Amino acid sequence: MNVHHLELFYHVAKAGGVSAAARCMPYGIQQPAISAQILQLEDSLGKILFHRRPFQLTAEGETLFAFVEPFFSGLPKIADKLRGGADHGLRIACPEVVQRDYLATLLSAVRATTPDFHFSLHSGRIDEIKVQLRAGKIDLGLATSLSSKDEGIRYHELLRMKLVLILPEQAPQTSAEEILGLDRIDLPLITLPQGEPAVIAFQEELQKRKIEWYPMLELASLDLVAKFVSGGHGAGLAFDIPGSPLPSGLKMLELPGFPEIGFFALTAGAHPPMAERVIREAERVISSMQTGVPC
């Protein structure tokens, strides 16, 4: 039997289905690839290992899972033992915007104090991160969020940021009200993807004020938002990040009365000590950004 096929079967059986396994796998693999390789395993055995709808292991599937489960579930412990008992590894999940704009600086700072620090990195939005934390699939999530209350999730606020609009310096507008007060706003709006908490909060506040202004361009990072604004493509929705100056040629318009967005480290249950170390380092890095004093 192909060992990789057995590993995929282990995750499918543990997660309770192919779709759930694809969301919780410790490395990236798409649902169709998992399904195809499980079919190959079943063909090689001449047996069906589980019923698909609803999910349920067959008798043969139960037998195989009982055989492979001790090995695959024990891999983290043996890895810890081989490393000498001090596991400085961490499974981290965060949205792409966090990966692009914050994560590299943070992880470099952690590695400077813990040279053998290693990590696996997974992409996911805040709701997906919470699911993975509760399932024990990751150790730490880093994300912006509108709320800090969820059963079983611990939120550690690292930073609170105001929403702002950014425009080219030569743009005639000097306040956000000059834009939001228009009967019809024809200035293109450039934002992060609509699922991001900042965009959700901005649109909810606009609805309260009975203002219609929807994104024309949705970009993967704040850097890209700034670049497209610099290119004259519209007004950008961004954060006022303490200690992080605007790129040259741009100006910032405050949005009075709009909600602030929190940037959080998220953990759940008995997380490894390394997660707390990364949180402490994140606080130090962010404090350095705010004060301008090198950490």
Structural class: alpha/beta
Task: Determine the number of helices (DSSP H or I, runs of at least 4 residues).
Answer: 11
Instruction: Let me know the number of strands.
Output: 11
The biggest beta sheet is recorded as:
9 strands, mixed
Estimate the strand proportion.
Answer: 15-25%
- Amount of helix: 40-55%
- The helix/strand series, from N terminus to C terminus, equals HHHEEHHEHEHEEHEHEHEEEH
Which value, in Å, is the CA radius of gyration?
23 Å
Short description:
This protein has 295 residues and is an alpha/beta fold.
What does it look like?
It is elongated, with a radius of gyration of 23 Å. Helices cover 44% and strands 21% of the residues. It has 295 residues and is of the alpha/beta class. It is built from eleven helices and eleven strands. α1 (3-15) packs across α3 and α6 packs across α11 (273-291). The strands form two sheets. Strands 3, 4, 5, 6, 7, 8, 9, 10 and 11 form a nine-stranded mixed β-sheet that branches. The mean pLDDT is 87. The protein has helices spanning 3-15, 18-24, 31-45, 59-73, 75-82, 96-113, 126-134, 177-180, 197-208, 222-230, 273-291, and strands at 50-51, 56-57, 89-94, 118-123, 140-145, 154-168, 189-191, 215-218, 235-240, 250-254, 261-267.
